[in-house]
From TrEMBL:
Pfam family, one: 4HBT
GO cellular component: cytosol
Taxonomy, superkingdom: Bacteria
Domain HotDog ACOT-type: start-end pairs: 1-109
CDD domains, sorted: BFIT_BACH (cd03442)
GO annotation terms (biological process): acyl-CoA metabolic process; fatty acid catabolic process
Organism for this UniProt entry: Pseudidiomarina taiwanensis
Keywords of the record: Hydrolase
Signal peptide: none
Entry protein name: Acyl-CoA thioesterase
Amino acid sequence: MNFLSRRLVMPNDLNFAGSLFGGRILEWIDEEAYIYAACQLDAKSLVTKHIGAISFESSAYQGDVVEFGLGVKAAGKTSITLTCVVRNKQTKQTICVADDIVFVHIDPNTRKPLAHGKTKQDLDAIKIETPA
């Protein structure tokens, strides 16, 4: 799992109880997963097809820094399936896990699925620099 991106929990990210709003974290997961998939496939014409099991494990609060760990679970002919773990940067406590996030590579003109040309082995071999 590569932890590549971080966000600061701000006041407008909170729910009525003062913790990170679940909808906000799902928005962030979709965006972070798209960026990761686009970088892995070296393609930007991707659409979210599916987000499977989502498990909220703990809360995050204003001022917390959360980080996003992403990994490739599978690669199909036109799709890529990821797993995302969101955790507190300081404590390393898991906040949320989103599994089976599927993106489909599409032709930008026809919007039809298009082969991306990568295998799981190709994607596993990509070396990623992680921030300190």
